[in-house]
Write a structure and sequence with these properties.
Arc Repressor Mutant, subunit A; single chain; 204 residues; Umud Fragment, subunit A; alpha+beta; 2 domains; 11 strands; two-stranded antiparallel ribbon
Length: 204
């Protein structure tokens, strides 16, 4: 059941109060903070939010409110999603896309087999992976030729490169920077640790 506008305002007031002071507001503080006419009105809204599992309240305690499981779940979901409102041209212009969808970051991060690394160096700039970027990888011990992987070389050096099997029993870890040479090594010296899923770049 959806919240009314006033219930949402009360819930937001409680959540912001808890975040600021690290304890819950009293009913009197809610009434004063929201210019509500009486404590009975506060009780009515709190009861409704409790019934809808957005708040939990104790008995006979002045500061007994807790944010409920439903609020926590929905807040986490909002943090993990962003509206996907269309496409943007990076070459020729494209027709505007009015269809609204949601990009869920949990599609990338919700798997226990996913991990992140911070990129150091410019060996993969040809694939638009720059120094300071973050890469998300799927944990795996195997990869197909041409995939970008995190590979442990010789048991001590981890590198992000495109992986190729060579016919002479060697592995080629290919940078996408023409100024750098590939790493050629016996394939048994290479331990694949993860396969690239996504690249994240923070501009500010």
């Amino acid at each position: 059941m959806a919240l009314t506008k006033r219930q949402k305002q009360v819930l937001d007031f409680v959540a912001e109060f808890v975040e600021k002071y690290e304890y819950s507001p009293s009913y009197d503080e809610i009434a004063k903070g929201m210019n509500l006419a009486s404590l009975a009105t506060v009780h009515k809204h709190i009861s409704a939010l409790d019934a809808k599992q957005y708040l939990k309240r104790g008995v006979n305690q002045s500061r007994s409110l807790e944010l409920g499981a439903k609020y926590v779940r929905e807040r986490r979901q909002r943090r993990e999603e962003a509206p996907l409102v269309g496409r943007i041209a990076a070459g020729s212009p494209v027709e505007a896309d009015e269809q609204r969808r949601t990009l869920k970051f949990s599609d990338f991060t919700g798997n226990a087999e996913t991990f992140a690394l911070e990129v150091r160096g410019d060996s993969m700039i040809g694939d638009h992976i720059c120094d300071g970027d973050f890469v998300l990888l799927e944990k795996t011990a195997d990869a197909r030729d041409g995939e970008i992987v995190a590979a442990l070389v010789g048991g001590y050096e981890t590198t992000l490169k495109r992986f190729y099997r060579e016919p002479d029993g060697k592995a080629r870890l290919q940078p996408s920077n023409p100024s750098m040479d590939p790493i050629m090594t016996p394939i048994e010296n290479v331990q694949i640790q993860g396969r690239l899923l996504a690249v994240l770049r923070k501009y500010r």
